[in-house]
Amino acid sequence: MTRCECKLCPAKFGYKSKLTSHIDTVHKKLKPLQCNICKSKHRNISELNSHIKAVHDQIKPFECNICQSKFGKKSHLNRHIHTVHKQIKPFECNICQSKFGTKANLNAHIKAVHEQLKPFECNICQSKFRTNSDLNQHSKTVHEQIKNFQCNICQSKFGTNSGLNRHIQAIHEQIKPFECFICKSKQRTNSDLNRHIKYVHENIKPFECTICPSKFGTNSTLNTHITTVHEKFKNFECHICQSIFGLNSGLNRHIRTVH
Predict the structure, then answer these.
(1) Residue 159: inside a domain, yes or no?
(2) How many Cα atoms sit within 13 Å of 85 on the Cβ side?
(3) Can you give the pTM of this predicted structure?
(4) Three-state DSSP class for 150?
């Protein structure tokens, strides 16, 4: 059989159609298949099916034995273990020196944090997101209050099964496996730990409120501050006593502690 060799990388294929597909998806970055639920785009049918199973059907058979996070693919589990628990992060941001396990995560970080590229905006609260799927998840859980995953201990509800699991581990089981090497405080996730170090110890808060001297680590936190503190935007109402809150987390905390 004649081997079809890619001229852009060392990859070889048995069929010309496979080579063409490789060039389109890997080198040209074409993603012709769109998810009809969240409009995210994918390179091929197997990738699309994996996305639907893991994200929308919540089929995640591969569980981390350290923090109980679940994944749709074994490769995703392995990547999680390497980057989160073993702290293998070979890709470093040349702007802020943050490190990442994959080049894709580094690129996403640069776009979202440094270039502030969050093109998907919520038309209700103006929060911005990197992807359309993140926006859809936000709209469903925060504004439409679609939370199908309920905690059997305190009845708090969540939009995703992973969110419920994180809640149980952090709140009820007090599992916070990520320890700050400076103050020994423990965090639920590696991203929570990184944010804690940046905002608390390194005091990196580049986003300043134009109304008061408050500063924040992210633009989204600044926007939340402005809408809830200065504009008195409170869109979350308690269904029991009709108290209103600026944040969904504030409403949930009120329900847990008061009712």
Answers:
(1) no
(2) 14
(3) 0.41
(4) strand
Under a CB-based contact definition with an 8 Å cutoff, are residues 48 and 35 in contact?
yes
- Nearest Cα neighbor of 35 from 160, 135, 133 is 133
Q: For residue 151, give both structure tokens.
A: 């905690």
- Residue 162 has a CB neighbour count (10 Å cut-off) of 16
Q: Read off the CATH number of the domain in which 245 is found.
A: 3.30.160.60
Distance, CA of 145 to CA of 132 (rounded, Å): 18
User: CA 196, CA 170: separation in Å to the nearest integer?
Assistant: 16
Q: Report pLDDT for 232.
A: 82
pLDDT digits (tens, 9 = 90+) for 227-252: 888 888 887 888 888 888 877 778 88
Banded pLDDT at 79 (limits 50, 70, 90): confident
Number of domains the chain is built from: 1
Residues 156, 137: contact at Cβ < 8 Å?
no
* Sign (positive or negative) of CA dihedral 206, 235, 146, 42: negative
Is 2 contained in some domain?
no
Q: How far apart are CA 132 and CA 118, in angstroms?
A: 10
